[in-house]
Write a structure and sequence with these properties.
This protein is an alpha+beta fold. It has one domain. 27% of the residues lie in helices and 23% in strands. It contains three helices and five strands. Strands 2-1-5-4-3 form a five-stranded antiparallel beta sheet, sandwiched between helices. The longest helix has 12 residues. The radius of gyration is 13 Å and the shape is globular.
């Protein structure tokens, strides 16, 4: 399955994972333990470092924009690297992004097509 890692500097990377290794892959990609924020308006989940503020990780403008658009009453920000995946299925399992969703995210965040 495919996911996209987005750094505070705006670098994007396709991350591959399976149901069996999702925990390890997502932890490595965000740099530690994580929280999952479902962005239902966007049809995806955003995985963030759960101690980003404690560790004073850098501001992630793209992730914060997605968060603000989903939760318009919030003035919270997202810090550090994030990973975007598909929303969980009916059994709660993390899903990958489709090729079209990958391309859309690359275009929204960086103005270029996915690889």
């Amino acid at each position: 399955m495919k996911a996209i890692k987005a750094t505070p500097e705006g670098q994007l990377e396709i991350v591959e994972f399976t149901t069996e290794n999702a925990l390890e892959v997502l932890q490595e990609a965000v740099g530690g333990f994580f929280d999952c924020i479902n962005l239902k308006r966007w049809g995806m989940s955003m995985w963030v470092h759960d101690e980003g503020k404690i560790l004073n990780l850098p501001f992630n403008v793209f992730a914060s924009m997605f968060y603000a658009m989903e939760f318009s009453s919030s003035d919270d920000v997202i810090l550090g690297d994030v990973v975007f995946t598909g929303l969980p299925n009916s059994e709660g399992c993390t899903q990958g992004l489709t090729d079209k969703e990958v391309d859309n995210l690359f275009q929204i965040i960086s103005g270029r097509k996915g690889k």
